[in-house]
Each structure stands twice: as C-alpha cells, then as structure tokens.
Amino acid sequence: VETSWQSTKTTQAIIDFVKNEGFRSVRIPVAWVMGHLTDSNAMTIDAEWMKRVKEIVNYCISDSLYVIINDHWDGGWIEEQGFSSSSTSYSPVDEATIVDKADRLKKLWTNIAAAFKDYGDHLLFAGLNEPFQNYTLFNGRQQTLTPILERYNQAFVDAVRATGGNNEKRVLVVQGPGTSISSTYSNFDLPTDSQNGKLMVEIHYYEPWDFCGGNTTKLWSDMTYLQTQFQKMKTKFVDTGIPVIIGEYGAQWQENSSSHNSAIESWYKAVNQNAIDDGMVPFAWDVNACTWPSFSILNRSDLTVWNTPAMQGITNGVKAASWPE
Q1: How far is CA 133 from CA 79, 95, 179, 241, 314, in A?
Q2: What is the pLDDT of residues 189-221, one digit of tens each?
Q3: Among candidates 211, 198, 187, which has minimal Cα distance to 264?
Q4: Which residue numbers are catalytic?
Q5: What does R_g of the chain's alpha carbons equal in angstroms?
Q6: What tens digit of pLDDT does each residue of 101-127 get?
C-alpha cells in the first residue's frame, strides 16, 4: 500500500519539489505480489495498482527525471523464500523451488514490462531489491547463494527483453548479493543480455551500520573505509564499462545537535562526492518520517527540507564531485 510507511500520497507537486531540490533521478520501490495480483498463477497485476504506479512514473517523466521501478521486498516471496524454505532458520531451497521462483519472476516482469514497453529511456527496471534481505538468516551464505541469485537475474532480463517495444534496449538493473559491496565485488557476475551496455549493477550503502543504523554512535569519521569500498565497484564494474547505482544509501538523523549534524552532513557529502568521482549514481533512501531517528530528508507533506544536514551534505558532495572521463 502506498501509505504503509507514511501517510502522504505522491503528487506531481512532490516530484516537482524533489526536482527543484536538485535531484535528477527517482527510485520508486514497488510491491506487486503483496495484495496486487489478480491471478497468482499468471502473476497478473491488478489494473488499479498498475494505473497508480504509472501515474507516479509519469509524474517523474513529465519533469524529465530518470525513474527506476523494481520489485521491492514484496513479502519476501523471492528475496527470502527464493533462497531459504524457512524464515526462522536457514533451510536450502531445492531445484524445484528455484525453477518455480524463476518462472514466477519471469511472468511478473513480463506483465510489468508489457505495461511499460512504449515508455522511453528515462524509465529503468530493477529486477529485485535486496536479495537475502533477512540478514540474520543469510549471514555468511552469500557466496553459496549467489549462483541462485544469478539465475533469478537472468530470468528478469530474459523476461523484459522478450516483451519487445523499447524493452528490447531498455537499461536494466540487476542486484548484487545482498546488495553488499564486498559480496558483489567478490562473487557476482552479470547475466547475459541480447543488448550491449544496457545492464547496470545495484548495491546499497549503509556503512558503518553502528552510525548509519543509529545503534551505538552519533559520530563518523572513517573516510578511508568508504573510499576503499567504492573503489571496489569502480575497479570491477565502472572501469570495465558496467555502470553502478547505489540504489539506497542513508544514515539515520538521530538528534538535532551540532556534533551529530556535522557528522551527518560529512557522511552524506562523502557518499555523494566519492560515488560520483567513481562513476556511480547514488539514490538517497527517504521514508518521509520526520521524527528522530529517521532516514528522511524531505518532508513531503509540506514540501520542505526536514533534514538540513543531510541535504547540505548531498548538495556539497555533488558540487565537489566530477564524473570520471
């Protein structure tokens, strides 16, 4: 449901505000399987839900923004249950389950892609969100499970390309294992594609978690670790002609204090500056919950900047950065 996490429905005015703040791309997390299928066997999407998703995509495109839609968590039907048959203790899936999940993913993306096949190049598709999202369940197992993920990524690419129209050459985004930089660098390979140069890799960045998750510290200073991690993506992918997006990044704003505000501003600046310097496109995670602690930056209900330190960091990071030649 659009208002599951927060109560403000997306409008053209909100997207206009996002653009006016300097953002050039929007990532729309979409659930399809959670209550929006009219036929689960054929993975047919409810017409009203598809209409609403199209409305929001159209808001973005009318502002000349690039926009990504994905299959986001969605009850874990594939991101969790495609890798473990139990949600409470890890239990490997069998071959029949993998085949079934890949087939259902193909059907789902066939239906999504068919609905958008005449849209232009400002629309991108991302097959999943965060494979192995149950971190406790899959901790230490990402290398073992990556071959299964690669089968799902291949099913996504094959499904979209087969629908024709502009989908034959649309840019598609595939997720690394756990969207973890380290695992993606060490274990991940792209699916095959009928098009050259039309695949992007997605990773997420919430590191260090004790700062970003607001668990134990309100300060951050480890620039070296961030730069080392981002360089991994540059070396393996960007330098070889494969674009990378940081599909989500964020650090919780925990309190309005000078020391913490300075740390938040510095972290957001560092992420944006180093991502762009390394040829990656960063997407801030924003949940429109304007109370502490929160990942939110913009207040959608009154069209204002709520998290000024983060927004200042983003602005300064982009200004200081330069895309690699």
Answers
A1: 6, 21, 9, 28, 26
A2: 999 999 999 999 999 999 999 999 988 999 999
A3: 211
A4: 130, 248
A5: 19
A6: 999 999 999 999 999 999 999 999 999
